[in-house]
Prior knowledge:
Elements: H1 2-88, H2 93-134
Helix pairs in contact: 1-2
Amino acid sequence: MADDTGTQSAADQAANFAKSAADRMRNATEQAQQTFNDRVVEPAKRAGEAMRQGGQQIAENNQQIGVKMIDQAEQNTHEAFAAMRKAAQARDLSEVMRVQGDYLREQGQRSMSQAREIGEMIVNFGRNAVGAMRGDAGGEGGSQRTGGE
């Protein structure tokens, strides 16, 4: 009987050792899985979400620029028709020349202003995109420029 007790004790020890080894392997697997999720899966999800939001922001920015350009074209058309009306109502050739000169000068200034406005929009969109890639909430912190530069 001493042999049976010794055999059973050895079998119990082997079973406990195997159970302990299986528990350690399960824990190690769970820890590896969690580490993989934390270091690979979650960052990949965040990067994918950032790319989706970036694409959405690009589409919105393009829409804003398109609307602004249409608004500017509409303004330019109204100004051109107003100048044509003035020229049609002119009493002599010198008045027509003055109306045309005024229109050309104003249109040149308007074109420069409109180009500057579109350029500022593009620069601000770029700043915001770079800030978002860096993880800033509103672009590059306090470095946003405003007003007529």
